[in-house]
Amino acid sequence: MGGDIAPEMIALAAAKAAYFLPDCAFTLFGPSEFSSLAKEGISFEPASDIITGDDLPLECVKNKANSSLVRGVQAAAERKLDAFISCGNTGALIAASSLSFSRLPHMSRPALLTHFPSYHGRMVVLDVGGNLITKARRLVQFAYLGSSYAMARFGIERPKVALLNIGQESEKGTSELREAYRTLEQASGNFFTFIGNVEGHDAFLKGVDVLVTNGFTGNIFLKTAEGIASFVFRLTERKIAEQLPDENMLESWLELKRFLSYEASEGALCAGIDGIIIKCHGTSSQRAIFNAILGVCELSENEIIPKMAGLLREAFIPKPL
Amino acid sequence: MGGDIAPEMIALAAAKAAYFLPDCAFTLFGPSEFSSLAKEGISFEPASDIITGDDLPLECVKNKANSSLVRGVQAAAERKLDAFISCGNTGALIAASSLSFSRLPHMSRPALLTHFPSYHGRMVVLDVGGNLITKARRLVQFAYLGSSYAMARFGIERPKVALLNIGQESEKGTSELREAYRTLEQASGNFFTFIGNVEGHDAFLKGVDVLVTNGFTGNIFLKTAEGIASFVFRLTERKIAEQLPDENMLESWLELKRFLSYEASEGALCAGIDGIIIKCHGTSSQRAIFNAILGVCELSENEIIPKMAGLLREAFIPKPL
Q1: Between the CA of residue B317 and those of A70, A81, A96, what are the distances in Å?
Q2: Cα separation of B6 and B1, whole Å?
Q3: Is residue B55 over pLDDT 70?
Q4: Does the predicted interface ipTM exceed a cut of 0.90?
Q5: Cβ separation of A119 and B234 shorter than 8 Å?
Q6: Whose CA is closest to B208, among A239, A231, A216, A261?
Q7: B-chain residues within 8 Å CB-CB of A226?
């Protein structure tokens, strides 16, 4: 029931996934009136409470325990599911995950982690909406958490970590960022290489592997990047349509668009917990949810979370002074 | 002397401007070793102190009073100049402007204001770096300040004002944003129309005339938008080069690129004071600085600041509870 186009988009994506991924089993959670959505490869679990965008995270986890969101997270925590995907209320998803799962080593709370195409490969970004305001100690944790993901998922050795800030100098930004800067500078060299502060326009160009930020700024960063990419595409399409290009041109254009579109993303991982919980946009299309399912399969089959746990267990994470 | 490529880029831009704008007089401020940069239409004022990116704003205004930045702001405040443009330390420029100029009606501190192309026209954005963290009262001031600019500069009647946030619901984001939301909702209808919260991906598409945010978030927004636009362009150019398009296509592409590039921007106005002080990127090219000069001419000739003052004088600005 999560998101703006539920249950239609979610059911369509599950049906597509059940067809293309016959080795996977899917479970839909929602009000029993939708139980007819069950079919071969897709089972249905009734869950009658509805969480809205206005609900406060902790309250709705307590008062709406029979929602699709809370039931799904709990089923994943009880290992009845390998992973759970939601397009619903972000705060509620984080709160439910935080209450139901144990933490990865050294992590105090989950953070939302996603990855972008960048000019040199993939860039891991966290937090993109889990913790609006973040202490220096948490930003340092994010550097380790994001690095363990970059290593386990993309095989990047000693990832390049940067802080998202409004200037490159070490004294720029908020006191939390300055404190995190000093701590990461000292920690640099073993688990990751700290390359300092980067600004929004440099993040995609400077070879950053892991971009660390608080949830408020990270969310603005993520959605602005998606928004301007789609804006540039719309304008460019208008131009291209005027020029009546040949079909090769158009095909090549569409390929690029698919590569950069948010729909190509796997959604955001609720990272730092011992399980796979994925947050997708509230407005996710069938394609976006299907891509999240493909991403989940990769995370699960390649045992990314246990690998991250192993890496983090060996790490020494310094506390800011 | 401000910025990473001083004095070269600034001198080149001034020389170009002196040639193309024979009705304007230019003054360069900098160490006397560069006094040979003076020529027809360009005078030179020696200023030997150098402000760096690491200098703390208020301290360097006091201790480096003979810097190009402080001297230029003061000359503008004394009406020896109609406007002053700097590529230097943002905090120092705001601090110097704040100390030297009187405020526009109801404004307590300057904010950096810029405007973007959007799908429906121009979008005014503030603050993009003046005040890192901002109380609700200041966000409300920004709504009025930005609206007065949109009216005076672009002739937009009752501009559509939005808050940059991580969700559309009124309860999303920080306590400052929630408080500002309630106040702007009540104030909506007279000076401006408040359309609520917008997320980063919607800002360019939802017909927003004035986007209100604190300086930290606004700066991340501004630079991410520039960064991803340039990233998408680089990728697309690579694709286009592969396809060997015809010359019309290439010309049309370059035109779009010019339209969206940060170089086409006029820099950010230090808004809320009784004068024209412009902040350009530290890495500004000759073209970017020349565009800032053209922008300044428009602001000055059309008396935008006095018009804003007149509009704000008539406004009643509610204080958040």
Answers
A1: 44, 54, 41
A2: 5
A3: yes
A4: no
A5: yes
A6: A231
A7: 200-201
